Amino acid sequence: MKRILRPGLSRKILLPAVLVIALGLVLVLCIFHFNARTVVEQELSRRLQREAQLTASLLDNWLQARSGDIALWARQEVFVDALAEDGYYGRSARKGAQQLLASLHHGYPFYESIFLADRQGAILVHAAARANDDTAITLGDRPYIRATLQGQAVISPVVQSRWSGRPVFVVTAPVLKNDGVVGVIGGAVDFAAFKELFLRSFGQKQYGYAFLTDGSRQVLASSGNNEAELAAMVSADFLRRIAGQQQGTFVHRMGTVETLTVFQHLHRVDWSFNINQSLDRTLRPLYRIVQFSSVGALAVLALISLALTALVHRVVVARLRAMLRVIGLVGAGDLSQRLPPHPDPPDEVTELTDSFNAMIGQLERTLADLKEEIRVRRDTETALAHHQENLEHIIEQRSAELKKEVLERQRAEERLIRAEKLEMIGTLAGGVAHDLNNILSGIVSYPDLLLMKLPESDPMYRPLQTIRDSGQKAADIVQDLLTLARRGVAVKEPIRLDALVDVYLASPECGLLRLRHPGVEIVTEYAPDLMPLLGSPVHLVKTIMNLVTNAAESMERGGTIRLRTENRYVDNSLQLDERIGQGEYVVLEVSDQGSGIRAEDIGKIFEPFYSSKKMGRSGTGLGMAVVWGTVKDHQGFIHCESTVGVGTTFTLYFPVTSVAVQQHLRTVPPEEYRGNGERILVVDDVEEQRMIAAAILEELGYRVTVAASGEEALLLAARERFDLLLLDMILGDGMDGLATYRRWIGIVPDQRAIIASGFSENERVIEAQRLGVGRYIKKPYTIAKLGQAIREALARP
After folding, report:
1. Of 702, 670, 689, 675, which Cα lies nearest the Cα of 780?
2. How many CB atoms lie within 10 A of CB 760?
3. 548, 615: one domain
């Protein structure tokens, strides 16, 4: 019996349990390693990107400063006379130029040489650290000299110096007299000094180094002094990937080492600043942690296995062995044997022991007295009934478990449906915003245009005003959907939270709330030195309105709503539902004395269409979802604390800004944004939008031309000049507003323009503004908003 029991039952119980635990530990370790490696790689990539962008910016600024130096020197009269005058005055000017060049070379030691050349490229005078004064040097064959003689300031590629034979790059500028080029002044920057200036700090970089490459995929310099090794190891695909993009990050292998490369191209020259970081060496501490964790997991697995073995032996194996021993004695004819009762709480083995003892007693009584047969049968029937009850209990228990599983599956399906609903709302809101705002432009802009032509006494004045206001309200609803889709905040400005609370308390919506809930009192507590935040007043006032409305509707018997603001420094000790970055925040607390929120419902209150309000109350279930989206669009955080029957407190955290709060501007009369006959090109793929914009601009006094696409607009750029472009960001299947403006300034540099779009402000709008576009206005726009934006853009230099 023992031989059969030990390998059978023990293995069937212990081995599967140990395997499941082992697999769980392995899975946890794998997930931990993957997540930790991902986090480290992402953080390292972001840090290296910031370093590359900062250094590239420093390089561009330094090169721009050198171009400025050379251009300033080119305007010195002594250099002009040295190139333009002959005879005694020319020799005297050249001597003065030689002295001035020597002084400049002494003051700017990173120049290997500074020279003055005539229109043939011959060096007239120069100041150099290493040079043979008896050797005549002509640079007329250098491409950068020919480009400078055409009137352009140039920074050359890295070339070999004809004075010293060392690598240099040359900064040149034309010398002008009476608007004509008479020569070239240039400075050859010693590339070794340039490397020492900008790459020295990267020489001590742990596990990595920085290096420079040019557009021909040549390695110019490296902080690790491994230029030759780097050029021999990297493949053409590696450098081609750097040369093919403006900036980026990628992981590749250099030999046997997995390497993270970050690169950023310079704007003034065709160079790229790059950083290589060894991922293998950087992640080595992480690998050690995984090794230690694996050893710990094995130790834990061993302890669990020992504990399971002891538990199974005590609860099951030992008791079964005792039963086998008694069975053997009973089989030998000793019916007086009984199994001892177990002191632990009863279980299935205990029931089996009791049944076995009862069976022995029944056998004993049968042999002692045959008359007990009827009673034995009744006892047997009772035992069977008892087993039937146990079976029914087991069936009932299993039915309950199946019911629970079905319920869990239903809940999982509900969560899936809710997730699909969220995705559908985001897709719907983002997809229809542009087209819907284009449609609303006619409802807002045309009444605005007609109101300018009608007196207030006209019977159509107020209906048109109502149409315009209704269209604006519809645009606000679209904006709510964009806020729900996390794409709603288009414009931010420095504001104070207490001022926004006062704006809401003075609003008609708050007045209506007080009428509906006369037993509710609103109390404010403002910090005296509240810091500003960068945000959208419209969205934040709506957020305050939603929170106060929910608070009022939760207090059926009345109570106090408390609005409190304060400045708060958040450190790592703050424990909330989500991790908040350390720093200064301005905080808004909205507290009520309402019915509270159940703990199981707090996680659902920010879901779209979730509402605990009764039928007939205000609210669609979108209010708190809009609140959450607005807070996140402001890089903020929201925390909810609630006790059923006591009340609820919502705490909103917004990062502070150092920008001063500006006063609201006065209303600008139409006379101040009327035009003076300036020419404006309207580029929009929607015919109704072109008609609306043209009608408004002509009414304001401008001369208007329209184009239906970016390609059509570029055809006009070649033969006509416009004072301003009004560009739609989305232009159908062709080029968008950013691509059109980028091509346009290649034909007409410094062209003034403004951007209009039915979408919210995004990265492409910001990129267009970086290229020189003025304001961004959101569709549908009013005449006043469009007129002010145009006057502001035309006033720019």
Report:
1. 689
2. 21
3. yes
Q: Which amino acid is at 142?
A: R
Answer yes or no: are the C-beta atoms of 563 and 588 closer than 8 Å.
yes
Report the sign of the C-alpha dihedral through residues 455, 460, 463, 466, in that order. negative
Cβ neighbours of residue 378 under 8 Å, at least 6 residues apart?
none
Query: Does residue 220 fall inside a structural domain?
Result: no
> Which regions of 602-664 does DSSP assign to beta strands (E)?
637-643, 647-655
> Tokens 């228990």 — which residue?
397
Torsion sign across C-alpha atoms 370, 376, 378, 380 = negative
CB contact set of 703 (below 8 Å; sequence gap of 6+): 677, 678, 679, 680
**Cβ atoms of 490 and 536 closer than 8 Å:** yes
Residue 9 lies in a domain: no
Q: What is the 3-state secondary structure (H, E, C) of 376-428?
A: HHHHHHHHHHHHHHHHHHHHHHHHHHHHHHHHHHHHHHHHHHHHHHHHHHHHH
569 plus 502 within the same structural domain = yes
Q: How confident is the model at residue 667 (pLDDT cuts 50, 70, 90)?
A: low
DSSP letter at 660 equals P
Helix, strand, coil share of the chain (percent; to 5): 55, 20, 25
Look at the block and give the residue holding tokens 């779009």.
757
* DSSP assigned state of 603: G
Residue 483 forms part of a structural domain = no
pLDDT level of residue 464 (50, 70, 90 thresholds): confident
Q: Which of 44-53, 188-197, 403-412 has the lowest mean pLDDT?
A: 403-412
Can you tell me which residue has the tokens 């020295």? 200
Cα–Cα dist 259/252, whole Å: 5
- Range from 190-199, 204-213, 389-398 carrying the lowest mean pLDDT: 204-213
593, two tokens: 């004395």
Instruction: Identify the CATH number of the domain in which residue 715 sits.
Output: 3.40.50.2300
Q: Structural domain of residue 130, as residue ranges?
A: 75-194
Asked if 734 and 710 count as a contact pair (C-beta separation under 8 A), the reply is: yes
DSSP 284-299: HHHHHHHHHHHHHHHH
**Which of 98, 70, 77, 100 is closest to 172 using CA atoms?**
70
Residue listed under structure tokens 């008791």? 319
Tokens representing 541 are 């006032």
On whether both 732 and 700 belong to a single domain, the answer is yes
The domain total for the chain is 3
What are the residues facing 778 on neighbouring strands?
Answer: 757
Residue found by looking up tokens 């853009």 in the block: 793
**Nearest CA to 522 among 537, 538, 506?**
506
pLDDT in tens, 387-442: 787 887 888 888 888 887 787 677 557 546 654 665 566 566 666 666 676 676 66
